[in-house]
Specification:
This protein has about 400 residues and is of the alpha/beta class. The protein is about 40% helix and about 20% strand. Strands 10-11-9-12-13-8-14-15 form an eight-stranded mixed β-sheet, with helices on both faces. The chain has a seven-stranded parallel β-sheet with strand order 3-4-2-5-6-1-7, sandwiched between helices. α5 links the parallel β3 and β4. α13 crosses α14. It starts with 17 loop residues before the first helix and ends with a helix. The protein binds adenosine-5'-diphosphate (ADP) and magnesium ion (MG). Magnesium ion (MG) binds next to α3.
């Protein structure tokens, strides 16, 4: 137990602009989250920031509010760029920022992402957006065609920063950062931030303010985590049993491979479940349709690869299944973090089979996760496996 004074969480103390306050009221937010309390003033004051806070604790508004409050509406150049790893997240952040800007006429926010027609995006840029939300590849493409110019950008946000600084993205992100003025504010947000990130961050940030909301107590996402020994086709049977026993209607299932995603989705449908799937080989139009359908509750189970693991915020996802153990430990946290968002309850179930014992132990240890080993009772309910001590 800590003796620290509880932090007073109030939007009043943040001295927000009336346009922001009105938007927050419209969105139904009455109290800021801890990361919002800490990050909003730092970002607004122009500091470079590296911020770590658990999944589902409102990081988008933590950078979105100061971005909007600092815009200069007399300037027609791009002033802020938000860079993120997936197309789905790009659209979601754009929506969130547009909601926050509901009372700021004249503010334009444009999403730039792969898979959408170039012409659509070139036309959108003609609106002279102040904020561009982008996946790196397409942004560089548009920069190359001189459709986007970052020479007057004063803030770059890297959402899911640790992912953006990994091998797959780092080269593109470097190019983007180099296209902005040398004194551009660089702001990084993620639920997981590794030492490597801090090293790269050090290159691009000056006197960065480090903010960390620890995942404990009230800030810990409320997710009951289970591990179930189940392999082969048994996994599907067990998943269906659990879904029926707990009467789940909003579920995400993560698989490591696209082929598994396809199979699991097809099998679920064959068993009469309403399911759809998301992975990198699906056309962009289809991907957008699937995400929109899932958000609206048009089907109950979304089966996906890790394209949907980071950042995606769908209201009230009740459960996350790890059909396979993720290849990377942090992805465990990101995947299960699709549930238990904004103080809601969630559950996660991770399937493991013989040979996975080491991986499971590693996930537990590295992510500091409290995962209960269970078997399934005949009614499909979880039965805790006695720990070694209890068994003795
Ligand atoms: P993160 O990026 O930390 O995973 P998000 O920014 O996606 O989290 O926010 C998670 C959810 O919490 C969203 O549905 C968002 O609308 C909601 N949210 C954000 N800030 C608040 C707040 N101050 N009060 C209530 N809900 C909030
Ligand atoms: Mg986020």
């Amino acid at each position: 137990m800590s003796n620290e004074q509880p932090e007073i969480l109030s939007f009043d103390t943040l001295d927000l602009q009336p346009e922001t306050t009105k938007a927050l009221e419209k969105m139904g937010f009455t109290t800021p989250t801890p990361i919002q309390m800490q990050a909003i003033p730092a970002v607004r004051d122009g500091y470079d920031v590296i911020a770590k806070a658990p999944t589902g604790t409102g990081k988008t508004c933590a950078f979105g509010i100061p971005l909007l409050e600092c815009l200069d509406l007399n300037c027609t150049d791009v002033q802020a760029v938000v860079v993120c790893p997936t197309r789905e997240l790009c659209l979601q952040i754009t929506d969130d920022l547009r909601n926050l800007a509901a009372f700021r006429p004249g503010v334009h926010i444009v999403p730039v992402y792969g898979g959408q027609s170039m012409n659509t995006q070139i036309n959108a840029m003609k609106k002279k957006p102040q904020i561009v939300v982008a996946t790196p590849g397409r942004l560089l493409d548009l920069m190359g065609r001189r459709v986007v110019w970052l020479g007057n950008v004063y803030t770059v946000v890297l959402d899911e920063a640790d992912e953006m600084l990994k091998m797959g993205f780092i080269r593109d992100v470097r190019k983007i950062l180099h296209a902005t003025p040398a004194d551009t504010q660089v702001v990084m947000f993620s639920a997981t931030i590794s030492r490597d990130v801090e090293d790269v961050a050090w290159e691009y940030q000056r006197d960065a303010v480090q903010i960390e909301v620890e995942s404990k107590g009230d800030n810990r996402p409320d997710i009951r985590q289970y591990a179930l020994h189940s392999s082969g086709s048994q996994r599907l049977t067990d998943m269906l049993k659990i879904i029926d026993a707990l009467d789940l209607h909003r579920v995400m299932v993560f698989c490591n491979r696209k082929s598994t995603v396809r199979q699991v989705c097809a099998q679920l449908k064959r068993q009469g479940k309403s399911a759809d799937c998301l992975h990198g080989d699906i056309s962009q139009g289809q991907r957008n349709q699937v995400m929109a359908g899932y958000r609206k509750g048009k089907f109950e189970i979304l089966v996906a690869t890790d394209v949907a693991a980071r950042g995606i915020d769908v209201d009230d996802v009740e459960a996350v299944f790890n059909y396979d153990i993720p290849d990377e430990n942090e992805y465990y946290l990101h995947r299960i973090g699709r549930t238990g968002r904004a103080k809601r309850h969630g559950i996660s179930v991770t399937f493991w089979s013989v040979g996975d014992e080491f991986r499971m132990r590693d996930v537990r240890r590295r992510t500091h996760s409290d995962i209960t080993d269970v078997t399934l009772g005949p009614d499909g309910k979880f039965v805790p496996v006695p720990t070694e001590e209890e068994a003795e």
